[in-house]
Amino acid sequence: QLANGYNVQSYIPTKAILGPVITQAIGSTTVPSESMVSIDFESNLMGASYSWTVEQNGVIGAEDGSGQSIEQTLIATQTVPGTVIYTITPTIDGCEGFPFVLQITVLPIPVAEVEPSSLAICSGSLTEIELFSDVTNASFSWTYASKNVSGATNGSGNMIQESLLLTNDEPGQVIYTVTPQKDGVAGDPITIHVQVNLCAPVAPSHFCGKRKLKDGAHYVSLTWKPSFDPRVVSYYVYSNHNLIDIVPATGPYTVRVPYCKKNDTIYRLVAVDENGVKSKVLTLKLGSAEKKRKL
User: Which of 24, 95, 140, 258 sits most deeply, having the most CB atoms within 10 A of its CB?
Assistant: First the structure.
């Protein structure tokens, strides 16, 4: 009604007062790095087209563009989540609607790290392999494959700590395949090779000595019980750090050595394998006054 009291009735086309409005964005707003974001739009008006600008932080791959949907591969450039803010403007018949703001979070892919990636341990020893990642608070899971070794298991955590035992006299191996993960995003698996060896042979036992007299000369008779370790090929006998005899693994397990009347003498015995690896040292001290002590 006008001021003079007359009524005026007029029809204004809906499109003249209403521009297109984005009513829904369809797609994931959180994606792993190196994956494609795919966002479709729905508008209140049929036939709307869309254009967008981008603002990215810690992400590469987002670009300004236009079309019916956004399909771009986004890559996180840091070890923390990055973001892309798309500002989308709908248009129909040259009429622009209100901008629609959409934020996409891009999750980094964790990278597993371990040093060293291969190691050798003795049978019965712990692996104690600590796992790291460039992404904070990443978790790890692993599977294994083994040969001639028992004790390995599938598992998860920040450290692989398992006691590995050989199942026979041959060296064995365990290969762990470790996969890092953070916020549901898994990184590339890495492998860790663990060589399991018998290591040092088992030492002999009951190492003892006795002073004897023969043909007017004093000497010491050293005796021992052999090691049960099949890897032993010989026994080394030392007198005050000097090698004085090498006895084959088949024996005899006795050595005749000169006796020193004036000074104490320390005798040592070790088992040796074919690679020259020595066992624990057995030590025997004989006093100059014919006293002896088994150490």
Answer: 140
